[in-house]
Amino acid sequence: MIIKGEDLTVEEVVNVAVRGEKVKLSNTAIEKINNSRRYVEKIIEKGEIVYGVTTGFGKFCNVVISPEDTKKLQRNLIRSHAAGVGEHFPEEVVRAMMLLRINALAKGYSGVRLSTLETIIKMLNENIVPLVPSQGSLGASGDLVPLAHMVLVMMGEGEALYKGEVLPGKVALERAGIEPVVFEAKEGLALINGTQAMTALACLSISGAINLSKAADISGAMTFEALNGIIDAFDEKVQRVRPHRGQRAAAENMRKLLDKSKFISRQGHYKVQDAYALRCIPQVHGAVKDALNHVKNVVEIEINSATDNPLIFPEEGKIISGGNFHGEPVAINMDYLAIAVSELSNIAERRIERLVNPSLNEGLPAFLTRNGGLNSGLMISQYTAAALVSENKTLSFPASVDSIPSSANQEDHVSMGTIAAKKAWKIVENTLNVLAIELLCAAQAIDFRFEEGGCFKDLGKGTKRAYELIRDVVPKIEEDRVLSEDIKKLAHLIKSGELVKRVEEAVGTLE
């Protein structure tokens, strides 16, 4: 993948972070990086006072640093800011952080040497993954703490995962044949002053959430069939008079998935209206789709931005201190993502309840087991879904409305964007498992419909393929068994993208 600093996409971030695609800089990026560095060196030669280049940091911005202490200043910055605690970020998050920092520096506004940037590129391509604690960032001045832990390994310090082994940073670099970096003026600050921890989480979360949005349409369509839902609610005429893009897309998805189904009903055949969890799928899933589209747009602007401070404009001959490190755009949108994905789990859990509850499930056996009492069937799967949904509700409380001043009140408003992003990441994981439970219950319910006289060929074009995939992974539940393994297998079917991919082969692209 060619890194230009300009047009990186969420999908490309996932390809590098998860699938291990290699990267290199474009020639244009190399030229910009070199121009920016030459300007920094001119400033140093002139002895000008520039924040983070010839001064201390934060509240120490008025302390002038002598030229002979320049290297020590940058080294001390990284060591002092590596104050993180808690569990380490997963490997894919750290790889995404590395890629995003490379992309930001490739824009040529940060003043690092080309050789410094090439070191982090080599680390990424060799899959040297620094161990980065997940707690400690305020989301302004960027993700200082997690990025400092990432950068420690570039210096030959800290720890890293390399070829399945946790090693001291120096040893990991040696084994990969990479020389540690001795940072020059501005470089340490340029490497840690940005939003790359929160945006790494954001990229992976929004990618997962978009996949979940489509998977929720599939699981919702299966439940709709199992409960003989009334298809009229998804009519294009209904959507046309309230033309939100997401609502229309969700309704179209449902019509595609349920096309040719003989299990669905029409208005007035058996009942006049369905409950909201069925009838309002386009409205709820559609609102989520609109939110995800907005969040993805914001994230892609952010990952192609210069979030350093100060910023260097060599063509204009200026170095300007600003606030591009502030994570507020990401923070607010990660809170928005958290709320949106929580709603997918909320409505899915209500559909699960309708499947297992004999008072609501249109004549299906209680808890979807034939010999109830001796068997509990899928009773407790709904408990798990309810627990996950409840956890999502607590995680959906916004982080971006909080701020605690730091650096002796020099940094008096912060975004808490990384906390927002971590919560959104967790909600995506929880919702994945709720949808896996819905698939498990919906397939079981459909099996009982088959016993009533329906058959596999009576399913919709999309739900038929989904049912087939589910039964390839987990068999029908004839009597009680451990359900956690079934849920795990179905969660993998969703997370891998296989469910959506294979269903789309049958019905066309889902939005």
From TrEMBL:
<feature type="modified residue" description="2,3-didehydroalanine (Ser)">
    <location>
        <position position="141"/>
    </location>
</feature>
<dbReference type="GO" id="GO:0019557">
    <property type="term" value="P:L-histidine catabolic process to glutamate and formate"/>
</dbReference>
<dbReference type="GO" id="GO:0005737">
    <property type="term" value="C:cytoplasm"/>
</dbReference>
<keyword id="KW-0963">Cytoplasm</keyword>
<dbReference type="InterPro" id="IPR022313">
    <property type="entry name" value="Phe/His_NH3-lyase_AS"/>
</dbReference>
<dbReference type="GO" id="GO:0019556">
    <property type="term" value="P:L-histidine catabolic process to glutamate and formamide"/>
</dbReference>
<keyword id="KW-0369">Histidine metabolism</keyword>
<dbReference type="InterPro" id="IPR008948">
    <property type="entry name" value="L-Aspartase-like"/>
</dbReference>
<feature type="cross-link" description="5-imidazolinone (Ala-Gly)">
    <location>
        <begin position="140"/>
        <end position="142"/>
    </location>
</feature>
<dbReference type="InterPro" id="IPR005921">
    <property type="entry name" value="HutH"/>
</dbReference>
<comment type="similarity">
    <text>Belongs to the PAL/histidase family.</text>
</comment>
<keyword id="KW-0456">Lyase</keyword>
<dbReference type="GO" id="GO:0004397">
    <property type="term" value="F:histidine ammonia-lyase activity"/>
</dbReference>
<dbReference type="InterPro" id="IPR024083">
    <property type="entry name" value="Fumarase/histidase_N"/>
</dbReference>
<protein>
    <recommendedName>
        <fullName>Histidine ammonia-lyase</fullName>
        <ecNumber>4.3.1.3</ecNumber>
    </recommendedName>
</protein>
<dbReference type="InterPro" id="IPR001106">
    <property type="entry name" value="Aromatic_Lyase"/>
</dbReference>
<comment type="pathway">
    <text>Amino-acid degradation; L-histidine degradation into L-glutamate; N-formimidoyl-L-glutamate from L-histidine: step 1/3.</text>
</comment>
<dbReference type="Pfam" id="PF00221">
    <property type="entry name" value="Lyase_aromatic"/>
</dbReference>
